[in-house]
């Protein structure tokens, strides 16, 4: 009886403990097997026109901490040409990398991955667009439309929402906040009045803007201050012309003509008067006349003072322009030569009269 009793006790204990052992065995099987990690890709941040920070996250290690984690990215879906990774021992958590040297306004596709002893797991694909900053305006042109007015025109840059034009006195604005605002809007031109274009110089730059920022480059042009340059050019041309007409070197006379041609070109492209107006055209005609006349006058001066040795050293009047050139316009050597010839001619006439004058009879 006693042995039977212990047998029954053993059977009861076995029946009670069997489910517990079985349950414990199931728990061990579920919790402890090593599998691949679980990884997801999160949205990119800090996006610029040529870079972006991509994010990944290890949500499960697979009961074995990954030793490698990283990213692959490219510019078409499923085609990853760039990569980055780091090695170590990584648990559950996020990681990131900044992809640089990207193209303006391009879509970037990327995946995150992690690798443990079982293998590598890739996340699903994410993508982002680099910010599309606009390109700078083109065809930025300043046209004078009056004595104190100008018209600035341009072609809006690619992807620009607005164009910002800034002005400065003498110096260009260094940024879109420097100087003073001339225009900011969606148009392609602006008229500015009340300028002193004769003596003051005005410098303008234009940037494109959109929701992503300001263009990296700009367009620029300046106008004004022509009279100061014109005064300097007029002074130079006048001095060269004066020296050329008093010199026996014909090349200097050609230089004077070339100086007036340069003056004409500058006047044509930088007119202080309204382009095409009668005063503007009249000045251009005068400049062309000076450019042609001064070398010819110098040439005529040289020809008119040449000595015809075949006529006994007598200076023949060969003035091509049929007028006497003033002494102050002649070279010093030429003037002295003419003076000697005049005295010689006067002496010859006096000698001739003395030789042919009838002798008086002595009474």
Short description:
The protein starts with a helix and ends in a 7-residue tail after the last helix.
Structure report:
This protein is an alpha+beta fold. It has three domains: 38-129, Immunoglobulin-like (Sandwich), CATH 2.60.40; 138-224, Immunoglobulin-like, CATH 2.60.40.10; 228-347, no CATH class. Helix content is 34%, strand content 28%. The strands form four sheets. Strands 3, 4, 6, 7 and 8 form a five-stranded antiparallel beta sheet that branches. The model is unreliable at 304-324 (pLDDT under 50).
Strand-helix topology:
Layout lengths: L1 H30 L6 E8 L6 E9 L7 E7 L7 E6 L5 E7 L7 E9 L4 E3 L3 E4 L8 E7 L5 E6 L6 E8 L10 E6 L3 E4 L8 E10 L2 E2 L4 E6 L1 H20 L4 H20 L8 H27 L27 H25 L7
Helix pairs in contact: 2-3, 3-4
Main β-sheet, in a few words?
5 strands, antiparallel
In percent, how helical is the residue content? 25-40%
The low-confidence runs, each spanning 5 or more residues with pLDDT under 50, are 304-324
Provide the succession of SSEs.
HEEEEEEEEEEEEEEEEHHHH
Number of helices: 5
Distance between the termini: 215 Å
What is the overall pLDDT average?
A: 76
**Backbone structural class:** alpha+beta
Rg is 48 Å
The structural domain count equals 3
Number of beta strands = 16
The outline comes out as rod-shaped
Strand content: 25-35%
